[in-house]
# Entry
Amino acid sequence: MIYTLKIEWDDGEKSIEIGASEDEQTVITDVEVFLDTIDETTRNKSKAMLAKINVKGQIIGKKIPKLKESLLDIFNWARDFEVDSTYRKVTLTIKEDTATVLRTYEIENMFVRDYKETYQNSDQKGGQGDKGGMFELDLTQQENDLKKILVL
# Structure
């Protein structure tokens, strides 16, 4: 699978992209897209749902210098509390190969719920070896915006 993540704000004037270039096609290793019911005791269909995306990938600074900058931009977004830039449009494209798109999700008004980077010495058991580190990005859509999701 090939995953591309694009995060846009300021009416598309600014963006962060991971996986868009040929050398970044293997950076994102896992994705999960789901609709989550806020109240686990829900007995009827409810509007109390959130769209969520979880993205995991490799931090490969030497091989892909642009990735370092993109992940730093995501880190800074995660700690941003400015209303104008906290909520952003996220586009996640999932391809079976370079020519076959399985799904594209465009979700408006997403924010960073959690962002994590993990590093471990390669000589330790379970280390990342030459992979460098790993990142995990949890995104959630602003409540009551489920109609602002386009799935292709």
